[in-house]
């Protein structure tokens, strides 16, 4: 996703991240910039591209390089700060069909927050199964392939995050075997665990995962 963000923002200016003028009014640009400066300072010690730029160029790094070294949270926060048109450009490039009424509140922003929480939960080896995360709109994504397995209104369990990740990987890394392996894990291995059901993943009914991401 960082490449899609940088392509859209960089189309305005290679250094578009150096000021808030290309971002939406009200975005907390100062806090975001402080966070990415911290990441950039650490990368300057180990990332060869950043080290090369600092050594050979007397200018700020481009938005393309910046978004290669910041983490997923910083990229997600930046998406919330994009203008409506730029947010739409990013989600369209990711193959997401989104229907929503308020152009100031792109539902993908909430999905990125949920994915950030899921990422952090997994990174700390905490439980993902049968727990709730922040609710995100599934209705807005009903026209996006594969999302029909989710509850009609909103999704707040791990199946939603898995569905979004599977979709994004199909766009960003088409050769990835991750979606197929996750699907096999859910549809085959889960059935051998006593008293465990796919409704605990966030499915609308038990057995619904048999049609997962088709």
Automatic annotation (TrEMBL):
Pfam families (alphabetical): Abi_2 (PF07751)
Lineage top rank: taxon: Bacteria
Protein name: CAAX protease
């Amino acid at each position: 996703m960082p490449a899609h963000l940088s392509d859209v923002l960089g189309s305005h200016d290679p250094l578009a991240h150096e000021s808030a003028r290309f971002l939406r009014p009200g975005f907390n640009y100062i806090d975001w910039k402080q966070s990415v400066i911290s990441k950039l300072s650490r990368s300057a010690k180990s990332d060869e591209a950043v080290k090369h730029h600092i050594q050979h160029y007397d200018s700020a790094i481009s938005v393309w390089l910046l978004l290669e070294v910041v983490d997923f949270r910083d990229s997600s926060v930046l998406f919330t700060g994009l203008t409506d048109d730029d947010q739409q450009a990013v989600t369209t490039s990711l193959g997401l069909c989104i229907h929503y009424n308020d152009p100031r509140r792109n539902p993908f922003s909430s999905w990125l927050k949920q994915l950030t929480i899921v990422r952090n939960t997994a990174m700390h080896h905490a439980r993902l199964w049968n727990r709730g995360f922040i609710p995100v709109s599934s209705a807005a994504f009903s026209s996006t392939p594969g999302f029909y397995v989710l509850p009609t209104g909103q999704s707040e369990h791990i199946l939603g995050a898995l569905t979004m990740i599977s979709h994004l990987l199909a766009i960003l890394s088409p050769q990835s075997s991750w979606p197929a392996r996750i699907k096999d894990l859910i549809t085959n291995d889960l059935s051998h665990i006593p008293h465990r059901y796919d409704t605990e993943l966030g499915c609308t009914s038990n057995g619904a995962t048999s049609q997962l991401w088709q």
